[in-house]
Amino acid sequence: MAGRSPKIGERAYARSPIFGYSLNFREVLNIYAVIRHPVYAGVLRLGMGLALLNGNAFSLFFGLLLSPLALTSWVRLVEERELIERFGSGYIEYRKETPAFWPRPRDLKKFFRFVLKG
């Protein structure tokens, strides 16, 4: 560490014996401070919007019920288990404090600020 310049974002990471890095979730910024899985959340919203736009029974069933249920199940049963194994108690605390796909009402201002400004 001494004698070299730190890489961008390196301050937020600490060595972990299993996967190499574990996040300091207290330093999470931007959209990740509002929702844990912003890409999946965007996919859910896109699918729901397309289902409503199409409007037939199959697309509404698939886009409003089946897809969100399948994606949520995947994230909860597979991805979050891996994240807990990789990042440990820090991720468990982050998971308790930050919703997965939909921002809390108190965080809507931050959410829309990010959506509009990036």
Q: Mean pLDDT, as a whole number?
A: 82
Distance between the termini: 32 Å
Total tally of structural domains = 1
Judging from the principal axes of the Cα atoms, what is the shape?
A: flat
Structural class: mainly alpha
Radius of gyration, CA atoms, in whole angstroms: 17 Å
The parts where pLDDT drops under 50 for at least 5 residues are: 1-20
Total beta strand runs: 2
Summed up, the helix count is 4
Strand-residue proportion: 5-15%
Percent helix:
55-70%
For the sheet with most strands, the description reads: 2 strands, antiparallel
Quick tags:
118 residues, two-stranded antiparallel sheet, 2 strands, 57% helix, flat
What does this protein structure show overall?
Strands 1-2 form a two-stranded antiparallel sheet. Helix 1 runs antiparallel to helix 2. The radius of gyration is 17 Å and the shape is flat. A hairpin with a 3-residue loop joins strand 1 and strand 2. It has four helices and two strands, in the order E-E-H-H-H-H. Helix content is 57%, strand content 7%. It has one domain. The chain has 118 residues and is mostly helical.
